[in-house]
Design goal:
Strand 4, helix 5 and strand 5 form a beta-alpha-beta unit. The protein has a single domain, classed as Vaccinia Virus protein VP39 (Rossmann fold), CATH 3.40.50.150. 40% of the residues lie in helices and 21% in strands. Helix 2 crosses helix 3. It is elongated and about 75 Å long. The chain has six helices and nine strands; from the N terminus they run ααβαβαββαβββββα. The strands form two sheets. The protein has a seven-stranded mixed beta sheet, covered by helices on one side. A two-stranded antiparallel sheet has the order 6-9. By secondary structure, the chain is α/β, with parallel strands linked by helices.
């Protein structure tokens, strides 16, 4: 094996390691690991939120854009992804364009705690409960009455959900939120804890 071929292989390996590191490290530096959501779970979440054609959906922590693509393609929504990682942003934009949804999908590289959500009809969020209090405060200050928030795997304590999908661990909230929590929702709907 020649020296130039060996140098090329080493350079390619280093590039793959750097890009792979950035792929996993950037979201963690932003406060969340990248964990992709299954398409069936996304579909259930958007159905729970009753997403309608032409509505604006914001995906906080858009990752590879799978929520955006499904929302635009299957629901006719105008989908806006907010993502911290530049690599994930590039992939999400490429996938949207590759699916011919570039006119319906926008991806912005920014901190979703700083994002202007005043024109949102639906907000999709899959994160950890550690971020929930800060997210709740941001949503309260940004969302207009009638906007919906659908969360995956975490609830927003202090808000009573409007609906829960216990099988997929999805929580739906409608603005302005009703004070309460999951327990008050279950009690009110005779489902018990």
């Amino acid at each position: 094996m020649g020296i130039s071929l060996m140098a090329t292989l080493v350079a390619a390996f280093v590039l793959v390691v750097l890009l792979g590191g950035l792929w996993w490290l950037m979201p963690i530096l932003g406060g969340l690991p990248w964990i992709p959501t299954a398409h069936a779970r996304i579909r259930k979440a958007l159905e729970l939120a009753q997403l309608r054609p032409g509505e604006r959906l914001y995906d906080l922590g858009a990752g590879d854009g799978r929520v955006l693509i499904l929302a635009a393609r299957e629901f006719g929504a105008r989908a806006i992804g907010i993502e911290f990682s530049p690599l994930h942003c590039l992939l999400a934009v490429w996938l949207a364009r590759n699916n011919r949804l570039g006119a319906q999908v926008t991806v912005r590289r920014e901190d979703f705690f700083q994002t202007d959500l005043r024109d949102a009809d639906v907000v999709f969020a899959f994160m950890t409960s550690r971020q929930a209090p800060r997210l709740r405060t941001h949503l309260e200050s940004q969302l207009r009455p009638g906007a919906r928030v659908v969360t995956v795997s975490f609830d927003l304590d202090g808000w009573q959900p409007t609906a829960i999908d216990q099988t997929n661990l999805l929580f739906l909230y409608k603005m302005p939120p009703t004070p309460g929590n999951v327990a008050s929702f279950l009690e009110q709907n005779n489902k018990g804890i």
